[in-house]
Structure formats: C-alpha cells, structure tokens
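Weekly structure sync, notes
Attendees: PL (lead), two postdocs, one rotation student
Agenda item 3: pending single-chain targets
PL asked that the sequence for the first pending target be pasted directly into the notes so everyone works from the same version. It is reproduced below exactly as submitted, 192 residues in total.
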Amino acid sequence: MSLQPKPRLTPEDYLALERSADFKSEYFNGEIFAMPGASESHNTIVVNVSSEIRQQLKKRPCKVYANDMRVKVDPTGLYTYPDVVVTCGKAQFDDTHLDTLLNPILIVEVLSDSTEAYDRGRKFEHYRKLDSLVEYVLIAQNRPHIESYRRQADQQWLLRECSELDGTLRLLSIDCDLALAEVYDKVELLEG
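Predicted structure, written out during the meeting:
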C-alpha cells in the first residue's frame, strides 16, 4: 500500500473555503490550520485594547480591526487573523471581497499558552516581511506585561516593555498610549 501525498490547497481554494466556513483557519504553504478558541481573558483584553486604540484614533485617518480581519503576509503567503490590526491611510485589500488586509501598520497578539511560542517565533518572522508593519505588540494574558517591537530605520526591531499595572506603553507607530490598567480592566490576573 502506498501513501498518497496530501493535496495542497491554493490560496484561492483556501479563501473560497474560509469565506463559507463556520470557524476561522490560517493558511500557509498549501495547508489550513484551525485556530483555537480564545479564553474570556483573551477576549476581554482584545476588546479593551481595540477600544483604547480606537478612542485615541478618532478623527485620524487610521482604522482598528479586531479578531476577524484576515491579514495576508504577501511575501510569505501566510493568511492569518491577528487579535488587533491598525491601518493608517488607505487600507489595501487582496481582492474585491475587502476581507484580506495587506498593509497593517500595527499588529497586536494576545498570548496564550498554546500560541505564545508561535506568536513570538515563526509568526513574527512572517510579520517582519510586511513592508507596512512598523510595530508588533505582544500582550500577556494572565499577568501585566506588554512588549512592543518597533521597526527601526536600519530594519532592526527595538523591544520596549512594561509590566506595571500603573504603567503606560507608548505605541509610537500610531502615536497612542496603552495604559496597562485599561488593557487589563476586568481581567483576572495571576497573583505574584
């Protein structure tokens, strides 16, 4: 008995399936990867961050998207759903469906035990290939801790972080502040 190779999907196949699916999946190199569900803490942080950023971006030419805006990393072919995405200026989309964004300036991921290694590693490798991306933010789910990686003129990424509930992290890419007290509002944090 011979094993048949698993057929690879094209990006067009993936998008056709994804647009009619009841759940979200990522796509890379011909394969689809189901996305795990998110915890209450995760969802609360996403809503808090989206709200804080949106409030500060009022009357500015920037848009905030949460959870359901698919991003295509064109240079690598990854299709993914960041937790929060910001664009400034005209949003660019992959096609006329306007559901696959190409030019995020800021991406925020809320870390979980099952996704942290991927979000810090391989996924960030993909994101760094986006010419439009200026800042990548990682937010811990169970303790006050936010990291910001900002692209420098020499293409290096500079890390800034904040771990105090009374602290604030400046998002230089969009000229906004993230107060940790607001990010973690109504979130049960681990002691110590």
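Discussion points:
- The longest strand covers residues 146-151.
- The chain has a mean pLDDT of 94.
Action: rotation student to compare against the earlier draft before next sync.
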